[in-house]
Design brief:
6 helices; single chain; 17% strand; five-stranded parallel sheet; alpha/beta
Length: 136
């Protein structure tokens, strides 16, 4: 398991592939770990493996199968020992009700996913720098 990693909970394989490319090219000091559905995410977040190697940041999509991102966030934020792990909702949703609910249940930030590789390659490094470097 990585000690310097970011956890992405995302079901869109195209987005995952783009993120992996960006991490490899622009943010090589961090490893990207990926989970693709809500049930798998909850199992991992409640596992010993998670406790032994906490991620520096969680990027969480809302629209994922089996258990949506807001429910994952709600369950994750119930663990007081993990409150210092930033969770950024990184979703294609821009619905006001999703944004409001995400903040109410403990999201640190809510960003609409960029639509292109170029935008994503500019956004991810800044996002990582802000939530990990500046908020130590």
């Amino acid at each position: 398991m990585y000690s310097n990693h970011i956890l992405s909970i995302e079901d869109n394989q195209r987005d995952v592939a783009l993120m992996k490319r960006i991490f490899k090219k622009h943010i090589p000091e961090y490893n990207l770990m990926h989970i693709c559905d809500g049930e798998e995410a909850i199992s991992y977040l409640e596992s010993e493996s998670f406790k032994l190697a906490l991620p520096k940041l969680i990027l969480l999509d809302i629209k994922i199968p089996k258990l949506d991102g807001l429910e994952i966030l709600k369950r994750f934020r119930a663990y007081k020992e993990y409150l210092n792990i930033p969770v950024v909702i990184f979703s294609s949703s821009d619905l006001k009700k999703d944004i409001k609910e995400a903040y109410e249940i403990g999201a640190n930030s809510f960003l609409e996913k960029p639509k292109s590789y170029l935008e994503l390659s500019k956004t991810l490094p800044v996002l990582i720098e802000y939530w990990i470097v500046y908020n130590k």
